[in-house]
Amino acid sequence: MPIYTYRCNACHAEFDRLVRSDTQVSCPECQGRKLERLLSLTARPATGGSKSPDVSRLGPPPGGGCCGGGCHSHTH
User: Fold this and answer.
1) Is the dihedral of CA 37, 40, 46, 52 positive or negative?
2) Is the separation of the CB atoms in 11 and 27 below 8 Å?
3) Backbone φ, ψ for residue 41 (5° rounding)
4) 29-42 average pLDDT score
5) Euclidean distance between CA atoms 27 and 10, whole angstroms
6) Does the structure show a pLDDT above 50 at 76?
């Protein structure tokens, strides 16, 4: 059961929800149903050894913005 981050298209509130296969998600602020699921970074894996995994490529792409400036849904 993944936890997703959403943004409401009506009031622009951002929130997280644990989503099961039958979950109907709505905004906790305005109860809006038109939501955008946002890209979330994954949690860093726990390791028992001294060598940590390479997480250098996680995060926004080079060039900035959520999608390198290609989404055109907002200014970067």
Assistant:
1) positive
2) yes
3) -80, 145
4) 88
5) 9
6) no
